[in-house]
Structures are given as C-alpha cells and as structure tokens.
Amino acid sequence: MKRIKLILSLVAVLALTFSCGEDAIDLDPQGAISSEVAFKDPAFAQVYLNSVYAGIPNGFERGWYMLDAASDDAENSYPWPASNTRFNTANITPQNSPFNGLWGNAYTQIRKLNIFIENYEKLEGTDMVNNRLKGEAHFLRGFYYTLLLRTFGGVPVIDKPQELDDDLLVSRNTNEETLNFIVTNLDQAAVFFENAESASSTRGSWDAAMALKGRVLLYEGKFAESAVASKAVLDNTSRSLDGNYASVFVNNGASEVIFDKQFSDPDRGHWGNLFNTPKTNTAVSGWGGTGPTQNLVDQYEMQATGLLPLEAGSGYDPNNPYDGRDPRFEASIIHDGSQWKGITVEHRPNGNAGYNRGGDFTRTGYSMKKMIQEDRNHNEQSTQHWIYMRLGEVYLNYAEALIESNTNLAGATSAINTVRSRSQMPAIPVGDQATLRTRVRRERRIELAFEEHRFWDIRRWGIAGDPEVLTIYRVNMDNSGALVGPGRAVWETRSWDNANYLFPIPQGERDKNGNLSQNPGYN
Length: 523
What we know:
Strand 5 and strand 6 (343-344) form a beta hairpin. Strands 1-3 form a two-stranded antiparallel sheet. Strands 2-8 form a two-stranded antiparallel sheet. The chain has a two-stranded antiparallel sheet with strand order 4-7. The radius of gyration is 24 Å and the shape is globular. It contains 18 helices and 10 strands. It starts with a helix and ends in an 11-residue tail after the last helix. By secondary structure, the protein is mostly helical. Helices cover 40% and strands 8% of the residues. Helix 3 (42-54) packs parallel to helix 6 (127-152), helix 5 (100-119) packs antiparallel against helix 6 and helix 8 runs antiparallel to helix 9 (223-236).
C-alpha cells in the first residue's frame, strides 16, 4: 500500500511540475514510476521536492488580503477578508482561525520530506547533485517547522514517516525542542550545501539555511546564537544589496534575494496586482486591497535630516507633506498626487481615488506601491516574485540580535547604516541599547514594509495589544488635498486578545488527536 501511494503521488507531482518554470525537467513519458526509481534518479528526486516547494504559502496567494492588513501598517479596503473579520476584531477561534490550513499543509509536506530523507542515500547522482538535494530536504523541513513554531508555539516533532501501525496520537513538543529540531535540520542542510552544486534563489542554499537559522533564533529570543548565524551569512555570502530598492520586488534575479517563489506566464501567475491596484473612477482601477496607514507613513523620516516629520528641525513642510521623505516612501506607497500607470492618483476625499468612499476605495488615503507591477495590466495575472528572505532582512536581524544581547552596539549600528545607505539615508550614531532598539524596529518597519514581517514582529516584541498599535489612523485632507490640522484622523480602534500572540491548534486536529493540548485562551 505504501508503494502504491508513493507511485500515485509521484505521477501527480510529475504531471503538475514538468511545465512549471526553470526548475522543471523535460522528460519523455515514463509511465508508472516505482519508489526505487524515484529516490535513485536525481531528476525524479528533484521533481518530488518541487511539490514541497510549491506548498510554501506566500502573501500573493493567501486569498484577498495580505498580513500587513492585520498589523498597524495597513488596512484592507474591502471589509470581509480575515484581516478585518478575524484578526482585527480578535475573533479567532480553533474553528475559524485563518491559520488552520497551515497545520495540515505543513505536516503533509513534512511527511513527504521524511520519506525523502529516509530514502535519499539511494540517490545515484554525483556528490554535488546529491548533496544539493539532501540539503534542500533538510532546509525545507526546517522551513516548515519554522512556520509552525512562530504560529502555534511548540508542535509535534515528527522526523520519520508515520505508518498506520505507529502511534499516531502524538503530543506536542516544547518550544525549545521544536526550535532545536529546526536548528539541527538547518545545520545539516548547511553542511550538505557546502559541497553541493549551486541553484537558483527558488531553491534552498547555504545562505538560505543560515539566514533562516538567524531568523528563527531571533524570534525565539536566542540573541547571541542568532547574531552568529546572521553574521556568518554577511561574512560569507556573494550576495549584495541592490542599488534599486523598488526593482528588487518586481524583477527576478535581484542580487540580495536569498529565497523566493517565482511566477511566470502563461500558466503560473497570481492576482497581487489586481488585489492591490487602487480603486479609482478612471480606466485604471483595481480592488484597492492593502492600504497603508498613516501610522506607517509617519515613520518615514526626512531624507535630509534623518528625523521624523514631526521632530523639531526635521525639515518637514505640512504644505508638501510627501516631499523630501526617505526614498523608500515613494517606492512603497501611493499617496495623493502620485503618478501611477499614467494617471495622477487623487486620494483626497472627492478625488478619483478618494478615501473612505465605500466599495473598494482606500480606507486610509494611501495605496500600496511596493511589489506591484506598474507596467503590467492589473486585470491580468501578475508574475512578480514573493520574497521569503533577502539580505536586507539579514542585516537587520543581525543588528537586532546584537542590540538585544547588548553586545557590539557599534556593529549593530553599522549593520543598520548599511541598509540605510542603499536608500541614501543619513547614518545614525551609535547609541545605548534602548535608543538602538527603537531605531532598528523603525528600520525594519520601513525596509521590510508589506513583506509580512510586521505582523510577526509586533507579536514577538509583545506590543500587538498596545493602544498605539491598535489605533489606526488615516490621512485627513480637505477636497483640495491640503492637510486638515496635523493631517491624521482615527480610522478605527481594533480589538486585541492576548491569546492571539499564538494561534489556536485547529479544532479538527484536536478532534482527531486528543493528545494535542490547546494554546492558552482558546479552550
């Protein structure tokens, strides 16, 4: 039975994969594929792993919203997605959690990886090819467990294929045990990758394994160990920050991209452009989607001074509120007066894309520009990649780890300034731990905007329930586009439940396995 299931699985994977992108393999029809061939032939082994890569979730394909709309950085323009009806209202239960599907998908992929790892010594390729495939398997297993850990906390660690005669009613491991398993897999992956052929950014690599190790250790408060892992990437990578910040997110092949998911015409696209193009009353009109908040806009410094707009001496002009900002502002956000797809966007109340007019019009007076293809018809499928990891994040992970461990604050400052210098922002001085903590958190918010880091950052920092995070501001303009007063008004005040620092174990999983304990606050 096990062999029959594997044969059927491989045939299905082959049918789905051979026409999909640069990692597909052009092979003649093979008929039935035995399990012996599948784990001996590197070509079939790669196809097998392709199906695991395909299962990794991304922000463009979640469905109708991006996670930033469930943080203080954005508000979804249509009210019915989970960002507005579940996250922002603290209405999350074991039955309706938006992350319920992650559990089943992750363990489906982990089972595939366990089968592969159990059999990969049968590979008959060269050492360089075999090591790459082995490294990818351990990297992917670490990646999926990282998704589970940050979402649910400690989860069952399953390191071999389960059969019907096994004890399937496994209990949850602790956070520490789950983290250790992740780190072990990423270390194993790194060893294999050291003596492996190179591959594109759509596959695992030494850089990806070590960058992910730095991230997960940072998230779990292992700051000294995180700094070591991130520094190893910075010291040994051949990657560098790209000169054009905006292009990194819409063009494949950017030097700083460590791991991404790529799309291509005609059969592998997504609808990120349509979902996030501003709703207007012109010929250029999308679904509105992710609307940046005034909360986020206020965090973009003035380029000449490095000060926030409302800080004394910043150089901010309320009559021209968007002039002279950090260049990442214009690269990331469409505001009143922006040129976009050949039109002048009017986000003022009575403008062609006026805020809070109902329907799909922006609720905040801003639209998302970063990651959206301006040169592509928004009514057609999109092809820009989704970036899981890039070098800009590694610099900031390293800086934060040094700051939180209160060691080498000069090195932390240098890492932050490396990221800032790409956008021609003035360097910040070395400061004490509290000062630098504020600076690195702001830098993450700006540099990584809309890449779905903020959602997790406010949770791991323990600030998701703070009033300043829950109070969402929109722009406040008159019909001529002039700011009214300070230029901000409350759009909404969101709800919060401390249980939501973690998400509930899906009720369906607990119904099948009574040994799965529930996270606090969901019983």
